[in-house]
Design brief:
This protein has 178 residues and is mainly α. The protein has helices spanning 2-54, 64-68, 71-83, 88-113, 126-149, 164-177. Helix 1 (2-54) runs antiparallel to helix 3 (71-83).
Length: 178
């Protein structure tokens, strides 16, 4: 009887140790994924800032490799490949958007250098605004997806001013009290 009890106790202790080790390993994997997620988010935001710096700068003095694959975009690709393979279609769309953006910047740069009449600053050009807006929407979508994957999705603020059910209940409640 004692031997049976000791055997069962040993089995329970081993099971608890295995469970503890599995929890620690899962927590480490989650922490690593979260760190990689934050790195991806930082890289995407850095890429967005890089793009904003390029909009009205002359391109001729730039390295063609930097324009083709800027460091923040390359880093975002590497992190996505290592930790978030499910975001491949999003990254492909971002690379396509980057290609369209660089093509636009080259065309504008050539217009500026040739003193042609079609050049205007990017902030005044609807074509640039459309390209850049679509790119920013995609980056925000990728950041949101990444936040969901790492379990760091912030709760969205519910704006009660546009919630007509909430607004009407407040006004009827106020009129009932008056």
């Amino acid at each position: 009887m004692n031997e049976l009890f000791l055997g069962m106790l040993a089995a329970v202790v081993v099971a608890l140790m295995i469970t503890g080790i599995a929890r620690v390993a899962a927590r480490k994997r989650q922490d690593r994924l979260r760190a990689q997620g934050y790195e991806l988010i930082f890289s995407l935001k850095s890429y967005s800032a890089w793009v904003d710096c390029q909009s009205d700068e002359p391109l001729m003095s730039r390295d063609a490799d930097e324009l083709a694959s800027p460091e923040p975009l390359a880093r975002a690709r590497a992190v996505k490949d290592a930790a978030f393979p499910g975001m491949s279609q999003h990254m492909l769309r971002l690379l396509q958007a980057h290609s369209r953006l660089v093509e636009y910047l080259w065309r504008q740069n050539l217009l500026r250098l040739s003193l042609a009449s079609g050049w205007r600053p990017a902030w005044q050009d609807p074509s640039y605004q459309q390209i850049r807006g679509a790119q920013e929407d995609l980056i925000q979508e990728m950041i949101g997806l990444c936040q969901e994957m790492i379990g760091d999705r912030e709760q969205e603020w519910r704006q009660t001013g546009t919630d007509f059910a909430f607004s009407s209940s407040m006004s009827t409640g106020a009129s009932a009290r008056a």
